[in-house]
Amino acid sequence: MNPNSYQQLVETTRDMLDRLSSGQISLAPQVMNKDASLYTDPDCFEREKETLFRRLPLMLAASCELPGDGDYKALEVIDIPVLLTREKGGRVRAFLNSCTHRGSVLASGKGCAHRFTCPYHGWTFRNDGRLIGISSQAQFGAADKAKLALVEFPVYESAGLIWVVLDPKSGLDIEAFLSGFDGLLTGYDLRNWQFYEQVSLAGANWKLAFDAHLEFYHLPVLHRKTFGADISNLAQYYFQGPHQRLGLMSANPLIPEQAAFLKLGVVDEAEWDVATMMFGEWILFPNVSINCYPSGVQVMVISQVFPGRSVEESFTVQTYLVERTPTDAEREEVDAVVQFIQKVVREEDLPMSRKQQKALSSGLLPSVYLGRNEEGLQRYYAWRDRVMASSDEGLNELFLRATKTPF
Ligand code: FES
Ligand SMILES: [Fe+2]
What we know:
By secondary structure, the protein is α+β, with helices and mostly antiparallel strands. The protein has helices at residues 3-22, 42-53, 137-140, 174-178, 181-185, 206-211, 219-222, 256-263, 274-277, 328-361, 375-389, 392-403, and strands spanning 32-35, 57-62, 71-77, 80-86, 92-96, 110-112, 115-117, 124-126, 131-133, 152-153, 155-158, 161-165, 194-203, 235-240, 243-248, 281-284, 288-293, 299-307, 314-322, 367-370. The strands form five sheets. It has a seven-stranded antiparallel sheet with strand order 13-19-18-17-16-15-14, with helices on both faces. A five-stranded antiparallel sheet has the order 6-3-4-5-10, with no helix packed on it.
């Protein structure tokens, strides 16, 4: 971890420990309201896909999903087929998963391949995007292979995560967009974790599904049967550019990672270990949340919330990683954590989003409210509005200015 990020992590830890002993969180200046059509208006949904999902760097994979030379991952994001590859030497590339002959999709799922042969007429591409073979070229006719490479997207790998901009012509400065947040995330050392499991869960409007990741206000109420009614509903937010971290303000010694965090308060700062300081939920703008759960083997869940086919549909991809290969006995414990998290989201959060969607779609509730204790949501929506209003050229300036904002 670079010294600046380490220093930030220490300062945040100090602040969280102070707040845990005082029980005080910082509050937004006022309650904010948003027009309820935010979640139901099809035009707004289309604009979000254009101005957020097709312009911003999206975190599309953990590095350990394609760890070795030749590994690849194919996925679809807002109906765009994407192919991520790791070429010889370790560099990650991102392409439109579409053959340049007549568009067939080249690869699906995950695997290892140094070349991809199109399933339609058999053109062959290397995993660096170059076209290397045109079937029956003599009969096909003249074609300049150099001009028929796969369409490529800007890609950036850092902190064991991979960001892609779904615009081949984008001039966005991805580092400026990340505002140093990736520097903090190196604290997890994710590059050395392992892929465990992935599920896709259907929900309502993507923001209704994502809102639930941005506040803890609902924990003891909606999740009283799973997390328990005693869990804190207070989040202390730490902002960095458009991204944010939520610290749970609970001094409950029964939560193991919380207990470890609290113990830092009685240890010399020089001995604070990075893994313990990382406690909390990390939000990557505009649609990803990262949580680490303790068990014999640490389990990480990365939740990507993607817009679905309509304004009323989304899907949440949960990717589970483990810090190392679990033994058979440990596997049971890891599976229990995975099942628990899936249950919470599948049976509590996402059904709630569908009920909200139905009611909001009536058009009869004019506004929704974001409390002073939900500052993360307030700032998230301020960022969303700012980014959507910005020109392509203005985005770099917007993020560069934000990088200077204190954590
Ligand atoms: S579409 Fe790929 S070879 Fe024809
Ligand atoms: Fe929840």
